[in-house]
Structures are given as C-alpha cells and as structure tokens.
C-alpha cells in the first residue's frame, strides 16, 4: 500500500439549506429486513456476524436529489473544478493519504445531522430494526455492561465509483438498472464479504435506495471494481455508548 498524496484532514463542503419536505414523508414502499444468511453461504465462518439489507429506504428520485444536494454543497475555487475529490484514508495525526491501490474512488464529505436522522427514521419503519440494533452485549461482559445505540453519526461520506474504481480492505444511491445523466447502467461494484483467504465470498448487489448495515469487526469486505457505468453510495457510521450497568455490576468489575 503506497500513499500517493498527503494532506491535513479537512471538511470539503458546507451543506446548504435542506428542503423541509425532503425525506419527511414515509418510505416509498413497506420495508422489510433481509438478513444475510452467512451460515448457509460460501463463508459459514461468519455465521455469528450481523449483516442485513433493507430495500426502498429512498425512492430513485430521492436518491437523485440527495446526490444533487451533495454536489451543490461543494464550493470550488475554480469554475471548471469537479465537486468530487479522490477519497483518502486516515494514516494518523489528522493526516489524510490518497492510496489508490486500497481505495480508488471519489468522495464528498459533509456533516448534516438532520438528514441522517431522517434516513434513520426511514430505516426504523422496517419492523424489528430498532430492537435488533438497540444494544450490543460483548462476549465476557458483566451484568448490565453493553453498548447502547444513540444515533447515526452526522458525518456523511458520499462515494462515486467510475469504471475501474473500487474499495478494498449504508446507502446505495444507484443500481444495476438505473441510468443517471445519460450514463450507462451500472455493472460491477458489488459489496463482497470475504473469507480470510479471499477465495470465497458473498456478494450484495447495489440497489438504488437500499441500505446495507453490517458490523465492521470480524467481517472482511470490499467494494468490487466497477466495470461499467457509475456507482453512487453514501456511508455513515452508527454511534453507540458504553453502559456499565447497575451497582452490582460495578462491584463485580472492581473485583
């Protein structure tokens, strides 16, 4: 992995006014959780890991509007400069690096708590999702010790993949049948969960308006090369708070 460009971490965009009606209505279709069944897949060793998809969180028109809002939020110093910049990774002490053999795509970043809150409200229309993600109890924890869900992080990362671009080691805004701006429909760009030797995989195809939710720890994954068309996605992290539990649990921790 070779760092090709170094720069201080900085916020590249400033979101403008968001229409009050944007994402304020119910989702376009009834929502359903689709669990990824690792136990019956090519990577059964991931059977204890959580990964799921929910389709139709956003309509295709809402996906288009969200992309346009992201692009309009970037203030360029040159009129002919594109709003999308090469995605970077953090290498420590606030320094960002462009590493094309690891993450090869373009990105827009902005902070907008109201939008991620609206997206989360849409997601929770899927029966059982709020309860499923409400808390995480780590193995070996004492009584009452757990991580409790608080919110989605306000930091949004819009990602744009053109042919030949990829992401290697939750929201898709385009799919394999959608065309945008006269571009060819998307081919490739699936999210893959891999075995440790990278010989086996489970693929999740992009679908406009769908969300992919999965745990980072313990799940080796990648975004495969886009072969045709343009893939748009938006990434946001879930924020949990560590809860120690009651008085008895605290006593046991001290012992």
From TrEMBL:
Look up keyword Iron-sulfur and say if it applies.
Answer: no
Which UniProt keywords are listed? Answer: Dioxygenase, Iron, Metal-binding, Oxidoreductase
What cofactor(s) does the depicted protein rely on? L-ascorbate
| Gene Ontology CC, one term | endoplasmic reticulum
Q: Native species of this protein? A: Clonostachys solani
PANTHER family linked to this entry:
FE2OG DIOXYGENASE DOMAIN-CONTAINING PROTEIN (PTHR10869:SF241), PROLYL 4-HYDROXYLASE ALPHA SUBUNIT (PTHR10869)
**What range(s) does the Prolyl 4-hydroxylase alpha subunit domain occupy?**
49-239
Positions of the UniProt region annotated as Disordered: 1-28
Give the protein's recorded name: Prolyl 4-hydroxylase alpha subunit domain-containing protein
């Amino acid at each position: 992995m070779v760092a090709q460009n170094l720069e201080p971490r900085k916020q590249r965009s400033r979101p403008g006014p968001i229409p009050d009606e944007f994402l304020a209505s119910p989702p376009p279709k009834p929502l359903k959780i689709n669990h990824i069944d690792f136990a019956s897949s090519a990577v059964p060793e991931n059977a204890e890991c959580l990964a799921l998809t929910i389709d139709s969180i956003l309509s295709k028109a809402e996906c288009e509007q969200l992309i346009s809002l992201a692009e309009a939020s970037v203030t360029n110093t040159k009129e002919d400069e594109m709003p999308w910049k090469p995605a970077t990774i953090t290498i420590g002490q606030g320094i960002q690096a462009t590493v094309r053999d690891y993450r090869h795509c373009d990105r827009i970043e902005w902070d907008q708590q109201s939008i991620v809150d609206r997206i989360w409200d849409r997601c929770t229309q899927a029966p059982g999702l709020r309860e499923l993600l409400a808390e995480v109890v780590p193995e070996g924890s004492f009584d009452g010790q757990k991580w409790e869900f608080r919110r989605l992080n306000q930091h949004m990362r819009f990602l744009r993949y053109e042919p030949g671009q990829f992401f290697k080691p939750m929201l898709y805004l385009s799919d394999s049948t959608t065309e945008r701006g006269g571009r060819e429909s998307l081919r490739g760009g699936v999210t893959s969960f891999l075995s440790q030797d990278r010989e086996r995989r489970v693929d999740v195809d992009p679908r406009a308006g769908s969300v992919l939710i999965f745990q980072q720890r313990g799940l080796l994954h990648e975004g495969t090369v886009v072969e045709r068309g343009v893939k748009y996605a938006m990434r946001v992290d879930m924020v949990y708070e560590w809860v120690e539990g009651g008085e008895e649990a605290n006593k046991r921790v001290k012992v």
